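Can't paste images in this forum, so I'm doing it all in text. The chain is below; anyone willing to post the predicted structure tokens underneath?
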Amino acid sequence: MSRKFERKTRELLGGAGEPGGVTGGGMTGGLTVGSDRLFGTSAGFPHVVELDLARVHRNPDQPRRHFDEAELRGLASSIERHGLQNPILVRPLPQGEYLLIGGERRVRAHEMLGRKTVFAILTSGDPDEIGLIDNVQRVDLNAVEYAAALARLIDKHGYTHDELAAVVGRDRTDVTKLLAIMSLPAEMREEYATAFAHVSRSVMIEIAAAPADLRAELWERAKEGASVKAVRQAKRDHAQGTIAGAASEATPPEPGPKEAMRSLQASVKRIMRDVAVVREQRRHLDPDNRERLMRLRAEIDAILEGVDGGADDGVENGA
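Text version of the structure:
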């Protein structure tokens, strides 16, 4: 766990245990653990309570949307054998009720076992942030669930990608790539969530970064089990085909080698200058510009691979 992720988690969970917060009198029963000098606990130690499951209400905005029945049965068996090792996270509501923030799988497992109560930690931070962090720390969310949860935090708080990265403890580039998954067609995201959630995040990120006219083809390959490497190769092949097609359709006569090299040098200098300005000023790239840069990078990679391949052939032929 990164330090900033750990620090953010403490900030979100630690406030629940402060004196003057919810006390034992407002709970439906069970053990409360708070600040206690005798036992060496600090003022930031969270409140742990035993709650009636009937008073714990599901969070409609919780990040996880799909629950595997076999995994739930396995979790229920573990809880029955070893007890609940990690309390659920709840937020106090009026009238002695509670909103479930993190741990819906654990609640469902308790219900499978016929349990009437569950141990919980009281929290006072932002429910969406805590719910996302709790899921990240435990069972990984699938790619679409994770991307949707990040998008909800941006909509709710107006976070920049840098700010959101600090909240969830990930690199800003990772956050941007994950958010791009939400640009995939809704039917593709729904199909993924209901039947193909085993497709890795990395593959979904590669599909999201592909040109719009290639995404459907890449998605079909992913459903058939294509690896990240295979998806990237398909994108390179597509880029090379695009370059070849554009060259065959060009009507003006092709420039000579010297003219082409001079034009390329001027273009490279201009691109490098513009990229340096964007990087220095940390300007936000909108999805359209990001897609153009991704296509440009793919085309450059394809050209370089062709040059490198030709050089290797020359070495082998001369050996």
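The chain is about 60% helix and 5% strand. The chain has two domains: 3-137, 143-249.
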